[in-house]
Write a structure and sequence with these properties.
The chain is mainly beta. Helices cover 5% and strands 15% of the residues. Strands 3-2-1-4 form a 4-stranded parallel β-sheet. α1 links the parallel β1 and β2. The longest helix has 5 residues. The radius of gyration is 13 Å and the shape is globular. The chain starts with 24 loop residues before the first strand and ends in a 10-residue tail after the last strand.
């Protein structure tokens, strides 16, 4: 079962992090959510770790499952984009375990 963004388009895994200039948004600390891809299509999802959880392709009832959908594993405090810019930066802070300050 495909996961769709708010426009009804199937969400895809973008394997070329962060080199695709068509991707205008990035979400840091995305964890189990696909918020960035659902509400801002063409968005990179990142997190510090993947916690050994699989991507959600082909998983029924994704919202009820414990899985990740990450384009890249990174730490916002340490990543260097070498001048790469994004139109939207999303900082996820679920249940007080995300970013502070």
């Amino acid at each position: 079962m495909a996961i769709l963004d708010v426009n009804g388009v199937e969400i895809v895994w973008l394997r070329n992090f962060p080199n695709d200039n068509n991707v205008e948004s990035i979400e840091f600390g995305s964890s189990k959510s696909c918020f960035g891809k659902k509400y801002f299509p063409l968005c990179y999802l990142t997190d510090v770790t993947d916690n050994n959880l699989p991507h959600f392709f082909g998983i029924d009832n994704y919202e009820l499952k414990n899985c990740h959908y990450l384009d890249h594993i990174c730490d916002f405090n340490e990543i260097n984009f070498d001048g790469r810019v994004f139109n939207k930066l999303i900082f996820c802070n679920p249940y007080n375990i995300g970013f502070y300050g």
